[in-house]
What does this fold into?
Amino acid sequence: MASTTQLPVPPAPSTGSITAAPVTRTKGPGRLRPNLLGGVGGWLWLAIIIVPIYYVVITSFKNQAGFFTSNPMLPATEPTLDNYKLVLENNFVRYFTNSLIVTLGTVLPALLVSFMAAYAIVRGKGRFLSLTNNLFLLGLAIPLHATIIPIYWMITRAHMYDTLLALILPSVAFAIPVSVLILSNFMRDVPNELFESMRLDGCSDWAMMWRLALPMTKPAVITVGIYNALHVWNGFLFPLILTQSPATRVLPLSLWTFQGEFSVNIPAILASVVLATLPLLVVYVVARRQLLSGLTAGFSK
Amino acid sequence: MTALGSANRGVRDAGPSGWLAFPALVFFLAFAVVPLIGVVFLSFTSWNGLGEIRLDGLSSWTTVLTDPVTGNALVVTAKIMLFSFIVQAPISLLLGVFTAGGQKYRAALAVLYFLPLLLSSAAVAIAFKALLDPNFGLGPGFNLPILAQDWLGNSDLVLFVVVFVIAWQFVPFHTLIYQGGVRQIPTSLYEAAEIDGAGRFRQFWNITLPQLKYTIITSSTLMVVGSLAYFDLIFVLTGGGPGYSTRLLPLHMYLTGFKANDMGAASALGVILVVIGLGLALILQRLGGKNRNASQLEGA
It folds into this structure.
């Protein structure tokens, strides 16, 4: 049955809200004792995380002469925005728009079809559904990127090479296994009685899916959406093999081509890194709690 | 009562129609299963990526299996997989436990820890390429000659640099998984341990670690299987070099197919990649299953 091919994902013990958990935890006696070793390790890791980010940001404000002469770890003496101007003048808005189209064009359909499939797999019966589920679970174990050559062949044959649709279609397919897994794990926790009482009220399966299953699995839907969006927004391999022209270039690929074009202008290259990351940083600042608790909830279950 | 119950069950048993799973299935068949079959088929052909595809028997396989670069790519892949697991797993576990603590400053640190999650692999690679430059990066920045190595040009060092950058990028994600796992451990277990006078180390060893068993399995599986997909980071960071020292299997496949225009050989490498991924997942699942049984026996 399904369990024989299932990846070792822990069985969900509780449906308690993840965001509420830390609050109860802090009540534990002794949990707030200072931990010297942990503290030192924690600050050390912070340094490891921050130094590269700090370096990228300060360098992006240096002019080229400043880059070659100043201390690399000190901020620019005469900060300049020229690098950002250069990046923006090099089609940045176009690449940003492409990334946005591909991300939304992938995440929304992937969510819809995965949610419907997870609902059918959890609530439905029969060989067809269990086979489908096993196929998706198998998809988790296979490094799907190994199939880029046939995908390239299919896309060129379908005359979709160098279009945004060429990026969207395989990305949707690749997002399905993990999405179905997370969504169906959550869906199994929805009490059966709720479905049965709605059934007695004469609700159809279709209506129950939207009016009961969807609201009850909202955290999982958000998790899956965020996880897929991060992957697609930052994806590099499909754009590399399936697109070519600036008209279809997405942000991660634009960093790479920019690096090729302006190889000596390191400050400008790093400004492009900052600009490409900025949209996600804004999302992170605005919706950090949602984002982190969503990811935690999805993978710690 | 029972009669009514079973009647209800009869209605419910129909369940939603399997057609609901159909759209997902079609997508997955068309862009994952068909390519999977296609990669096996193409490995028995010769194709330069543009012209026509010709059946070519085992010649691609002969090329791939006799090419020493393939063996080297396998070794590099295994090394990167092993080293990045050894580095990432303990750091992620400890940071996960650390950030799950209630202290305010830990929550603040956690906000910053997760910043690398926002960067694309291409961005991370470009940032580190600049940072690791011996003339304009870390070394002169901190005025420490030992940091001014030719990190990416020295074939003895480059593998460890790659493992470090991979850890920098992926530890935040696994920290998040562990943080969530720790927060699901019932506080009562720690309270009981506290009453029994167990110190912090014993609490970690006897409560935290066993309770995180499934989280450890999940995170390790994602780590190991995921390391077969470290393509983009290494592609931009080193391009597989210097020489062949960081040319791991997915990168070797890409370069064989799209740079050397030998799609047949690249497909054979793709098949090898699939087999390795599947094998690893099965082994890890077996390990996880064994642990599960063992713990049940202990509990009995």
Observations:
- Chain B is about 70% helix and 0% strand.
- The CA atoms of residues 28 and 34 of chain B lie 9 Å apart.
- The longest strand of chain B covers residues 45-46.
- Residues 1-12, 290-300 of chain B have pLDDT under 50 and may be disordered.
